[in-house]
Each structure stands twice: as C-alpha cells, then as structure tokens.
Design goal:
This protein has 395 residues and is α+β, with helices and mostly antiparallel strands. It has one domain (6-392): Cytochrome P450 (Cytochrome p450), CATH 1.10.630. Helices cover 52% and strands 10% of the residues. The protein contains 15 helices and twelve strands. Strands 1-2-8-5-3 form a five-stranded mixed sheet. A three-stranded antiparallel sheet has the order 4-12-9. The longest helix has 32 residues, at 220-251. It is globular and about 60 Å long. It starts with 10 loop residues before the first helix and ends with a strand.
Length: 395
C-alpha cells in the first residue's frame, strides 16, 4: 500500500466521501499535514482524546479563527475561566431534566404538525420538509427567537457553516455573512427588552439573567456571538442526525426490523446515526507550545483539526466501525458531541429531538421507503449530512 501524501487530499474529495481517506490516514499518517486545509489533521481516537484533554498544549483560542470571523468570539474559541463563564450562562435551560420537562410536548406537537403537512401526499424530501424545519422551529423556540421564521433560522445555520468552512476565502461568502449577522443582531435586540422584564426558560433569557455581578454579566457582543454559535451547531446536529437515522433504517432492513420489534432501541438508533455520520465532523485547535503528537513534531502557532468523524470510526475503538449497528457496545461512547470541557452544551436537546421525531416518522409514514427515482446525497466533511432524503410511503 502506498503512503498517502498531503498533496493527494483535496477538499472536493473530503466533501464527497471523507471516510476512505480517514481510514487510510489512521493507518499511514494519523497526524498528517493537509495542504488544501493548511492544517494538521488528527484522525485517531486516542490522539483526538489527548488533544481535548490538554488545553494547555492545544488551545481552543485559535487566532485568527474562521469561526470568530464568521460570528464573533464564542465560548468554543476560548479556554479556562472565560469559557466556563460563558458556558454556565447557557447551561441551565439545556440540562437533561430541564430540556425533557419543558420541551417534550412542544417538540412532539411541532413534529406532528410538520408531518401533517405532507402525510397525504405520499412522497417528500425529508430534509427539506421535516428535518430542517423541525430543527429550526424547535431551536428558535428554545432560543426565544420566535420573531424569525423556520426557514430564516435554517438559512442562517447554513450560512455559518459556509463561513466556518470558507478555506478558499471566497468574498461572496463573507458578504453573505455580513447580512446574516446584521439580521440576527436585530432579532436578538428586539427580544432582549421583553426578556429583561419577564425572564423565562429559554437560552437567551438565561444569557441575559445568569449573573448579578456586573463584571460577570455577558456583554451584548458575547450574547450575540454565542446565540450565533448555537444557531450554527444547534440546528445542523439534529437536522442531519434525524436524516441520517432515517436513511440508515431505509438502507439497512435488519436495523429497521430491530427497532420495529423493540422501540426502546430508537435511542440507540440516534446515537449510532451520529457516530456513523457525525454532523460536526471536526473542530480546530492551535498549538500553544512546541510539542509532539504521535511522533509528529508540532510547532507553537501551528493549526490542527481534531477529526471526530474519523475517531468515531477508529478500528482500535469500534468493532466493524464502517458497519451501521444499533446493538454495538458503547453505542453512546462516540465523540460526535466532542468531549471534556467543550462537550456540546446542546447534546441533550439534540437527543430529545431525535428521540421524539424518529418514532413519529417511522410510525406515521406507512411502509416508508427511499424514492427509487431520486438520489439522496451526503456532502461535507467539516459538517456532513444529507443534502436531501427523497422518500415515499403508502397513503
């Protein structure tokens, strides 16, 4: 087997299907400089875990940062005390019990209402007409941004993903980001006065009221940036997780039979779906001091990408990692929500969205199947999911 070189790996190849590339890199060059990205790609589970556990060596405070350029300085681009301060400002409404008690009925109503719109048609694109709108609607409710449309918040999430992945520095992408940022700032500024007078259980309200000490209170710039962060990650993870899970059931009949016979396995279905196709495929770190990672010397200031998608298919961790299997051991032990201090604060929200939507889709759409006349296509590597999911059912 020939050794893969960094010049052989293009962004186009990664967008089309990164998994064969990751598999080869794990075997041949687990810490590999990718010239098309201008970064070192870290692909093995143990190395990804080591990076996350050593923030003094591998800093989240990347500078300059594509994320910061796209939306402002967020908690994800900070370490230590300030990261903790910003994270604590949003944690309360996103804790497991708070999410479950407050939003279960609302999420179920939203899911049923969206299904009602197309159930009598017999076919649809589930990404366009369910997964995207459901993720957008539920997220805007949790944020307290009821003053925006379901479609608008979806468009914003896509724009941020394009901005954070704009490695070619396309000026049209940055121009679009300017308009998106202005619109979100206006929406936030419109809602905050109401939340100041009447706090509620939403994320934005938590940001506004988390601290009494004026020195700890979030500034308007911090609120805006972290709302944008939640829009970017908090929408695509449930949207792409829902679509991938349904696709898997329609592609692997044995897995469908398992959840049909034992509906309790729907929770494992959601976890395996985001292990198998991680919606957030990687995140950046900056080398803070000269170091060595898996035998590769890294200099202070160099950039790396921690590849969650690859870690989630590491042969040293998972048996038959390229197989979709909801009965596998450690099904919840994946890295799709990251780990450590930067573990996804919205993980329990995404899990509830998956837990509610998947049984409803499979239960209400009789004899659901892929549309043989339409192609459903996965795309992306930094963020990966189905561009569409064309399905049919009996009416």
């Amino acid at each position: 087997m020939s050794i893969m070189t960094n010049s052989e790996i293009s962004l186009q190849q990664l967008n089309e299907d990164p998994y064969p590339i990751y598999e080869k890199l794990r075997k041949e060059a687990p810490v590999c400089y990718i010239s098309s990205m201008g970064r070192w790609l870290v692909t093995r589970w143990d190395d990804c875990k080591y990076v996350e556990e050593n923030s003094g060596i591998f800093s989240a405070a990347e500078d300059p940062s594509m994320m910061t350029k796209a939306m402002g300085l967020t908690m994800l681009r900070q370490d230590g005390g300030n990261h903790k301060r910003l994270r604590m400002a949003v944690e309360q409404p996103l804790r497991p019990k708070a999410v479950r008690d407050k939003w279960t009925n609302t999420f179920r109503e939203d899911a049923n209402e969206l299904i009602n719109r197309f159930i009598n048609i017999g076919e649809t694109d589930l990404v366009k007409h369910f997964a995207g709108p459901f993720a957008g609607r539920t997220l805007k409710r949790m944020l307290a941004l009821e003053n925006v449309s379901d479609q608008e918040i979806q468009d914003w999430s896509i724009a941020f993903m394009e901005g954070m992945g704009n490695y070619n520095n396309d000026p049209a992408v940055w121009k679009r980001m300017e308009g998106v940022n202005r619109r979100i700032n206006d929406a936030i500024d419109e809602v905050i006065p109401f939340l100041m007078k009447k706090p509620n259980d939403t994320i934005l309200s938590s940001m506004v009221h988390s601290y009494e000490d004026p020195e700890e209170k979030l500034t308007i710039e911090e609120i805006r940036a972290n709302v944008k962060l939640i829009i970017s990650g908090g929408l695509n993870e449930p949207r792409d997780g829902i679509a991938s899970a349904v696709w898997a059931l329609l592609t692997y009949p044995d897995q469908r039979q398992l959840v049909t016979e034992n509906p309790q396995l729907y929770s494992s279905l959601g976890e395996e779906a985001i292990r198998y196709i991680a919606p957030v495929g990687m995140y950046p770190r900056q080398v803070a001091v000269d170091t060595t990672l898996n035998g590769v010397e890294l200099k202070k200031g160099e950039r790396i990408m921690v590849c969650l998608s690859s870690a989630n298919r590491d042969e040293h961790i998972w048996k038959n990692p390229n197989q979709f299997d909801i009965t596998r051991e450690k099904v919840k032990g994946h890295m799709a929500f990251s780990m450590g201090s930067h573990f996804c604060v919205g993980a329990w929200m995404a899990r509830l969205q998956l837990a509610i939507s998947l049984p409803l889709i499979m239960g209400r759409l009789t004899n659901l199947r892929l549309n043989p006349n339409e192609e459903s296509k996965f795309w992306g590597f930094g963020f990966r999911g189905l561009l569409n999911l064309h399905v049919q059912w009996d009416i």
